[in-house]
């Protein structure tokens, strides 16, 4: 578990650096995909899922 957490943190840092640099290349997209897969296997995955579901419910309930 400690190894996957350190890899997740490394990928988060790389994703933030890539987003701040302005361009999204194939290597940047690959880092973001790997980050997503690693986050899905951590204990924070249900929290992220519930947060995304709540956000979609909130946005879906907004009437223009």
A few lines on this structure:
The chain has helices at 2-21, 26-40, 45-60.
Number of strand elements? 0
Q: Please summarize the sheet with the most strands.
A: none
Terminal-residue CA separation: 45 Å
What general form does the structure show?
flat
Quote the beta fraction: under 5%
Runs in which pLDDT lies below 50 for 5 or more consecutive residues are: none
- SSE topology string: HHH
Structure description:
- By secondary structure, this protein is mainly alpha-helical.
- 0% of the residues are buried.
- The mean pLDDT is 77.
- The chain is built from three helices and no strands.
- It has one domain (2-60).
- The longest helix is centred in the first third of the chain and has 20 residues, at 2-21.
- 80% of the residues lie in helices and 0% in strands.
Lay out the secondary structure.
Elements: H1 2-21, H2 26-40, H3 45-60
Based on the model shown, name its key terms.
64 residues; mainly alpha; flat
């Amino acid at each position: 578990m400690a190894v996957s957490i350190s890899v997740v943190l490394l990928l988060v840092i790389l994703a933030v650096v890539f987003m701040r640099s302005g361009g999204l290349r194939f290597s940047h997209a690959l880092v973001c995909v790997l980050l997503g897969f690693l986050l899905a296997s951590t204990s924070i995955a249900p929290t992220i899922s519930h947060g995304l579901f709540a956000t979609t419910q909130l946005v879906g309930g907004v009437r223009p």
